[in-house]
Amino acid sequence: MIRVRIGWLAAMTLLVLMLVACGGDDDPSAEEAQAAYCEDLSALQASIDSFEQTRADPNATVEDLENARDDINEQLQEVDDSADDVADANVDQINDAYEALNDAVGEIEDDTTMSEAAEGLSDDIQGVRDAWQQVLDAAQCV
Q1: Which CATH architecture is the domain 29-139 placed in?
Q2: In whole numbers, what is the pLDDT of the chain averaged over residues?
Q3: How far apart are CA 127 and CA 94, in angstroms?
Q4: Residue 36: partners with Cβ closer than 8 Å, 6 or more residues away
Q5: Which of 72, 107, 110, 131 is least buried, going by the fewest C-beta atoms within 10 A?
């Protein structure tokens, strides 16, 4: 009986120690959060640039454009996540501009030529770039 109690007490002590070890504060400091946010904004710029390169490529396909759009979306999710840790970060305008681009790419028919598709997306990708620039300026990334 005493062995059972000692074993149970040891198991509970070990469990408490494990919970304490895992329960630390994982929130980044303000400086770390800002740095991550700025890195994600920089990576978003690279995705926007890649989309524009794909759009300008006469050999690109509609699928290539969709993949480049998806890359922007993935990076935008990273920006959204890191913005959650930064006071006063607001990425709504990028999200809104991306939605317009997403809709425009989604409306492209598979048999559309790249020059037709590229011309139709010019304003939408510029809207994403302009929104990105405004958010970058507000973030004061160096």
Answers
A1: Up-down Bundle (1.20)
A2: 86
A3: 8
A4: 28, 82, 85
A5: 110
